[in-house]
Amino acid sequence: MLLKIYKTGKLEAGTDEAGRGCLAGPVTAAALILPAQFTDGILNDSKLLSEKQRSRLRPILESEAICYGVAHVHPSKIDEINILNASILAMHYALDELAKKPEFIIVDGNRFKPYKEIPSECIIKGDQKYLSIAGASVLAKTYRDAYMERIHNEFPMYNWKQNKGYPTKQHREAIRKYGITKYHRKSFRQLPEQLKLQL
């Protein structure tokens, strides 16, 4: 069972992102404040859950959370400020969406920037330790997956419905064949051989 709270006595938000390692699509973050009585037997890091489990959890989290927020940062911004800064920006945007102002923020990972003078703590593998970060990871993942499934219809040859923009062999082969789209991150190394000179 994951821990409920990091800072006792504080209205605490957990935040996490999804899609950092993708070649296409946004980086998506969620922030979540859960009530003290919230429990769920399967909630964990979204990467450790099946798609079916994540889909079951999303409406539970949305209905039982005190409040939540989800935000995308799109490829043009990722290319402009780099993926780390874009991930932190997405988390800030998600925190902006919260209906209640948190008194403390717990963040998955080891990098964050101050948000509105609210104290925060980075927690390595926080999505496997605290319910609110795990919940945020599930919301970020499910919202991002839904977005990738929508844009799949525009460019079905990349099969984003299945690979969600990650660098699978099929995705890279489609880039090699068709080039990149407006949804691809131009600052990312789309094909391994891009850095090799053809002599």
UniProtKB/TrEMBL annotation:
Its EC number is 3.1.26.4. Manganese or magnesium. Binds 1 divalent metal ion per monomer in the absence of substrate. May bind a second metal ion after substrate binding. It is found in: Cytoplasm. InterPro entries: RNase_HII, RNase_HII/HIII, RNase_HII/HIII_dom, RNaseH-like_sf, RNaseH_sf. One of its GO terms (cellular component) is ribonuclease H2 complex. Pfam families: RNase_HII. Belongs to the RNase HII family. This is Ribonuclease HII. It comes from Aggregatimonas sangjinii. The gene is rnhB.
